[in-house]
Amino acid sequence: MAEGTVHIVGAGLAGLSTAVRLAGRGRRVVLHEANRFAGGRCRTFHDPRLEREIDNGNHLILSGNRSARAYLAAIGAGERLVEQPARFAFVDLANDQRWTVAMSGGAIPWWIAAPGRRIPDTGIADYLAGIRLALAGADKTVAEALPGRGPLWTRFWEPLTLAAINTTPERASAALLWAVLRETFARGERYCRPMLAPGGLGPALVEPAVAWLEARGAELRLGRLLRTVESQARRAATLRFADGDEVLGADDRVVLALPPSRLRAVLSQALPGIDPPDDACSIVNAFFRLAEPPPEGLAPILGVLSSTAQWIFRRGDVVSVTVSAADSLGLDTKAGEELIPEIWQEVRRALGLAAGTSYLAARINKERRATFDQSPAGVAKRLQPRTALGNLFLAGDATDTGLPATIEGAIRSGERAAVLVA
Ligand SMILES: Cc1cc2nc3c(=O)[nH]c(=O)nc-3n(C[C@H](O)[C@H](O)[C@H](O)COP(=O)(O)OP(=O)(O)OC[C@H]3O[C@@H](n4cnc5c(N)ncnc54)[C@H](O)[C@@H]3O)c2cc1C
Asked: Domain coordinates of the chain in residue numbers?
């Protein structure tokens, strides 16, 4: 059988992962991307104010993310993510209490039996109640699935849900949180080591993939905005880009690796009934370039409670702060001038810097469409990778991977689309 060209639209991690899998099998691949750069929601850029390379937001990858690891190995970038021990440091700014959760190896979580390794004021039974997430139906939220609102709730379930699902526990799908736990925390320490990118997300996950693809003859066409797909006889026939048409041959295939809102627009003629979840869930990130070197022994990631700041990541002299579910918390509409001093005071206290310590430069980055609606109702709208058009497939973190909107989910969606195409 003749093998036509595979046109992949969207060079985020889902599109890159699809392209890597297909080019690896010798398929001719053309990757079309609206922006002048690849990476989509996961990118590194030079910030002139900070005079540093920064990521658009902190991204946590865990060692249990098997698809992300396989992708990195395939593009020869396995060493660009550095594994950290699974020790999670926290500070509660309400009372300045600090603790570190130190997980043990193996699937049996012995660490929850050791009071010094678990979260203060929690008992073994609190942790075991987490199994209720696995048993909750698809229509349940995290808050509905889990009983009790004690210390484990405020110190673990709530921050974990915000970080992993970018949604408050009152809205977040219990099934999605369980999917994360099943592949990471429930399997023991080896599977939940943070994997950090000291050189940035782009140099780890994006640039090596682009170079790898180009070396195999794949074409990356930047600045190509797909406006619409035209169909004929239940097949995609023409891709109408802002700068011209791509008429598809009989053996050509298309993979749309686009976020839901874009997908709805480009498929409005070819698949008018398509109804993906909304994708207006935002994340706010604050960046501070420190005036002095960070304190010795500072954890690379610090969870912060009773504050606007949720997680503090440190890379060199830049600390970056994540505020997930910023839309639900009413923080995405707050002006940067208001957020910067508020978050800085929290960072200063969390890092133990003296009162009056200032920073050299700061900036806020608001990602208004960071993730899709990960409530049970939103999850029920996730699209399957096959469509009613025989030669058109879907990838992207919002397709029905069973995982939340994550790097792992995006990469896995690309693996799956590549299998369907091949
Ligand atoms: C601030 C932030 C923090 C995050 N934190 C984490 C985290 O800690 N851990 C984690 O695993 N995940 C995290 N995520 C989620 C993760 O970044 C995404 O799930 C993943 O990058 C999505 O990849 P994708 O390829 O599915 O979509 P995208 O990255 O959105 O890629 C889609 C691509 O399509 C292009 N495109 C759109 N429309 C068109 C068009 N009409 N024509 C051509 N091209 C088009 C876009 O420009 C983009 O490049 C975070 C996201 C953000 C924004």
From this structure: 6-44+199-277+378-421, 85-192, 281-371
